[in-house]
Amino acid sequence: MGKCEQCIVRQFSSLKALNKEELLRMADCKTSYTIKKGEPIFEEGESVNGIFCIKDGVCKLSKLSANGKDQIVKLLKPGELLGQRSMISDELTNLSAVALEDMEVCFIPKSEIMGFFNENNQFSMNVMKTICGDLKDADDHMVSMAQKSVKERLAETLLYLEATFGKNDDGTLHIQLSREELAGMIGTATESCIRLLSELKKSGLIDLIGKKIALIDRNKLKRMAE
């Protein structure tokens, strides 16, 4: 059982507002899980009575459309919290959270979180700011989907993946999304995504090493994304 007050990732989320006593209380009631790559943390339509804090690994938040396509809404990294919106609105989850690599997550029950809400003003402000940030991102994404071409969105997404999640030693993107997942992120068919990646490779902007992607000409990608 890790100690919450010694956990480095809590400093990246709303939990940074909790004092020592609150962190000790949280450590007593949290449950830690290992989630294997490809496994869900929760599925769409579940009741999640609390929040998950990501200690290690990356997951995708996605929604299954009527035609069975998986639309990725957001990727989450260590230090971020999962499930705060459905916990506050008291609704079932409207998205699924699935591990993109092996993960370590901690679950903190709703009763404890609501206690912090009532007692710690800074904590509740932090949670509200996070949710407002998510809304702003959703607005930006909607505008991008409406105003940018698929190619521009692909360039933007590749730059985002490298900037947010980093690279492997061989220069390839650390987060290895399948072609289907990448297509789902930019809102296009898998075939179109595969074709666009080949075009970007031919133009010398990226390199494709098996299923992996490496960015070669970031400046051209940035110009394309804008």
Protein architecture, described:
This protein is α+β, with helices and mostly antiparallel strands and 226 residues long. It is built from eight helices and ten strands. A four-stranded antiparallel sheet has the order 1-8-3-6. The termini are far apart.
Descriptive tags:
226 residues, alpha+beta, four-stranded antiparallel beta sheet, elongated
Concise overview:
This protein has 226 residues and is of the alpha+beta class. It has helices spanning 20-29, 84-89, 110-119, 121-147, 150-165, 179-186, 190-202, 218-225, and strands at residues 31-35, 40-42, 50-56, 59-64, 70-76, 81-82, 96-99, 103-109, 206-209, 212-215.
Helix-strand blueprint:
Layout: H1 20-29, E1 31-35, E2 40-42, E3 50-56, E4 59-64, E5 70-76, E6 81-82, H2 84-89, E7 96-99, E8 103-109, H3 110-119, H4 121-147, H5 150-165, H6 179-186, H7 190-202, E9 206-209, E10 212-215, H8 218-225
Antiparallel strand pairs: 1-8, 2-7, 3-6, 3-8, 4-5, 4-7, 9-10
Helix pairs in contact: 5-6, 5-8, 6-7
Low-confidence stretches: none
As a percent range, the share of helical residues equals 40-55%
Task: Give me the number of helical elements.
Answer: 8
| Major sheet: arrangement of strands | 1-8-3-6
